[in-house]
Amino acid sequence: MKKIALALAVAVIAGIGAWFVWRPAPAAPQVVFTLLDGKQVAMQDLKGKVVLVKFWATSCVTCIKQMPDTISAYNSYAPKGYEAIGVAMQYDPPNYVLNYAQTRQLPFPVALDSKGEIARAFGDVRLTPTAFLIDKQGRIIKRYLGEYDVAEFHATVEKALAAG
User: Fold this and answer.
1) pLDDT 10s digit of each residue in the chain, 164 long?
2) Rounded-to-integer distance, Cα 53 and Cα 67, Å
3) Which helix (H) or strand (E) covers residue 157, if one does?
4) Bridge partners of residue 85, in order along the sequence
5) For the domain bounded by 26-162, which CATH number is listed?
6) Would you list the domain boundaries of the chain?
7) Which residue, of 72, 75, 86, 148, is most buried by count of CB atoms within 10 Å of its CB?
């Protein structure tokens, strides 16, 4: 009886462990981004691309520090099927966001999350910068919070772009 109980316990633990290792990546929420120019882009429209959704604020020192890397990655990978969307936090004044995007000539779309709905849909994002890397099938493959390893980020993007 003890052997059966032990075997059952091992099987349950192995199953739980396998679920954590091989569980499918969660799907990105089906949100609609309202861009600075008033255009709307639905997450659904981005399927087939590798997408970075980056929550940021003009008052966030780390966000501003990371912006040159975000621009560089966008410029490098956009021709290969990569998209980035900067999502300005609800508390960020729209005129500050617009001014920053224009003066820095941000090459990627910037959305205003004026009601906080996008942040809530992505797990109630409150800290910036927070970014989500989404694969071509619309699944979240990586979440970045604060500082990140730029080389690892590039390797992950390249792997996702190469995947079918």
Assistant:
1) 776 755 555 555 655 544 444 557 899 999 999 999 999 999 999 999 999 999 999 999 999 999 999 999 999 999 999 999 999 999 999 999 999 999 999 999 999 999 999 999 999 999 999 999 999 999 999 999 999 999 999 999 999 999 97
2) 13
3) helix 150-162
4) 53
5) 3.40.30.10
6) 26-162
7) 86
